[in-house]
Amino acid sequence: MNQFHFHHETPHTARSEAGRRAPIRPHWVRPLLRTLFLLLAFWTLPFTTTIGKAADPLVVYSGRAERLIKPVLDAFQAQTGIQVNLLSSGTTEIVNRLQAEGDRTTADVFLTNDAGSLERARELGLLLPLEVKNIERAVPASFRAPDNSWIGLSGRFWVLVYNTGLLKPAEVRSILDLADPRWKGKIAIPNAGSEYLQAGVSVIKAVYGDDRTQQFLRGLKENAGTSVYGKSSQIVDAIAKGQAAMGLVNHYYLYRYLSEHPDAPLALSMLDQQTGDMGAIMNVAGVGILKHSRHQDAAIRLVEFLASRDGQKLFADLNKEYPLHPDVPADPALPKRESFRAATVPLTKLGELREPTMTLIERAGLR
Q1: Using CA atoms, how far apart are residues 70 and 84, in angstroms rounded to an integer?
Q2: Pick from 183, 318, 316, 320: which is nearest to 250 by CA?
Q3: DSSP label of 366
Q4: At what angle do helices 232-240 and 251-260 cross, to 10 degrees?
Q5: Coil, strand or helix: which one is 60?
Q6: pTM for this prediction
Q7: Superfamily (CATH) of domain 157-281+357-363
Q8: How many Cβ atoms are within 10 Å of 32's Cβ, its own excluded?
Q9: To bridge 166 with a disulfide, which of 68, 223, 243, 245 should be the other Cys (CB 3.0-4.6 Å)?
Q10: How far apart are CA 122 and CA 184, in angstroms?
């Protein structure tokens, strides 16, 4: 307590070593002051701790690229004052990490670009079943887990992007046509680790069975040769430069490329639209709250925001994805949603089919 100086005098005084008059304190003064100081510190602790808890950041593990999701999370933070910390990585790596962390995880929310991975997380017991306000109105049941432990946010379609100088769209009607030997050396594809490839092959397997899917994969591998890429943006770039005539990517990669290269000779084709065909392969980005989240109320607020009109519009405007909210229109540059059919394989099947699909991909020798 030596930092405190008292300058009043008492009736009993003594000379200090410097000759100044210094107060003589009763023996109980120092303990009393120390006690008062500690009490003051103690009573401020609950306030500090409460503020700390209120200001604890919401931790989001994201399998989406940061540039695709951070603007949306920033908008939520600005609207609510809830700080969001974002950790981005590969979706498979995140699911493995969440398994390893168990109830020690600091993560509150899992957000990724593949319904199969969300369903896998649900099967592993990592996600919390939810009651989310107005969710039935915002997101149709076909884009949610039955217990709302994950909720779809935006749709994307696996499409054929082609070089308009090298291919006519009528030449390829179905995704299965890509296995035809006439396309040898003309196709660019994602590698075997791509969640888009895995989900797409799962849909093909569900519709056509193992034998036909295996035949398709072997033909695709043969036709692609060395034109196998780790990023969808690389596939689009290769097609634009004439290094391949066509390739499979999510539709928004085309529009992102055209926004920077408006004169590129590129277009897309929605495959499998003939009578009896399976329809275009669709997947969704989605979100789930982790069972061991320490900030469930804030996490629910984030899910509600992402599924709301405002959140869905951000996905539509920023990423050229198809909003799942029926009242939010897609970007007018996209093919109108009512102009093509989607495959009817339930998204919840993608998790169940992941392992057998990977077996087929490995057997075909895709890398």
Answers
A1: 9
A2: 320
A3: -
A4: 60
A5: strand
A6: 0.81
A7: Periplasmic binding protein-like II (3.40.190.10)
A8: 11
A9: 245
A10: 40
Residue appearing with tokens 């996600």: 127
Count the helices and strands in the chain (H runs, E runs). 12, 12
What is the Cα Rg of the chain in Å? 30
Nearest to 277 by CA among 337, 343, 202: 343
Cα 256 to chain centroid distance, Å, stands at 18
The residue among 289, 288, 292, 290 whose CA lies nearest residue 103 is 292
Q: Which amino acid is at 151?
A: I
CA dihedral 355, 358, 360, 361 (to 10 degrees): 170
In this structure, the number of other CB atoms found within 10 A of the CB of residue 120 comes to 20
- Cα–Cα distance for residue pair 30/133, rounded to 1 Å: 58
Give, in degrees to the nearest 5, the angle at Cα 110 between 77 and 330.
70
Q: Is 346 left (phi over 0), alpha (psi -120 to 50) or beta?
A: beta
DSSP 96-124: HHHHHHGGG----EEEES-HHHHHHHHHT
Q: Is 145 helix (H, G, I), strand (E, B) or coil?
A: coil
Contact 303, 72 (CB under 8 A): no
Per-residue pLDDT of the chain (367 residues; tens, 9 = 90+): 434 333 433 344 434 333 444 444 455 445 454 444 433 433 333 322 222 334 589 999 999 888 889 999 999 999 999 999 999 999 999 999 999 999 999 999 999 999 999 999 999 999 999 988 788 889 999 999 999 999 999 999 999 999 999 999 999 999 999 999 999 999 999 999 999 999 999 999 999 999 999 999 999 999 999 999 999 999 999 999 999 999 999 999 999 999 999 999 999 999 999 999 999 999 999 999 999 999 999 999 999 999 999 999 998 888 899 999 999 999 999 999 999 999 999 999 999 999 999 999 999 999 8
Map out the domains of the chain as residue ranges. Answer: 13-53, 157-281+357-363
